[in-house]
Amino acid sequence: MGKSIYVGNLSYSSTEDELRELFEQFGEVHSARVISDRETGKSRGFGFVEMASVDAELAIESVNGTVFAGRTLRVNEARPREPRPPRRW
């Protein structure tokens, strides 16, 4: 089973391919996503990587605190998303 990794403080110009390439050094990457704003389509400065659990632990330890595209990354195991109240229009 895979583990989801949170990657924070990404450069706003970072792509999903660059994120995947960064984590592939530590094992097979199942998916890499840079989260973008719904309205503007611009990066929100964070993303998620899905990897095998064994590889994910090494990747978290190795990448956390490193500089990537000029920014110091914050990397840890992703927490489940908390439910949010429905939006009212």
TrEMBL record:
UniProt keywords, alphabetically: RNA-binding
Record field: transmembrane: none
Listed GO MF terms: RNA binding
InterPro entries: Nucleotide-bd_a/b_plait_sf (IPR012677), RBD_domain_sf (IPR035979), RRM2_NsCP33-like (IPR048289), RRM_dom (IPR000504), SLIRP/GR-RBP-like (IPR052462)
UniProt domain RRM: residue ranges: 3-80
Cited PANTHER family: HETEROGENEOUS NUCLEAR RIBONUCLEOPROTEIN 87F-RELATED
Protein's recorded name: RNA-binding protein
Organism: Dethiosulfatarculus sandiegensis
Lineage: Bacteria, Pseudomonadati, Thermodesulfobacteriota, Desulfarculia, Desulfarculales
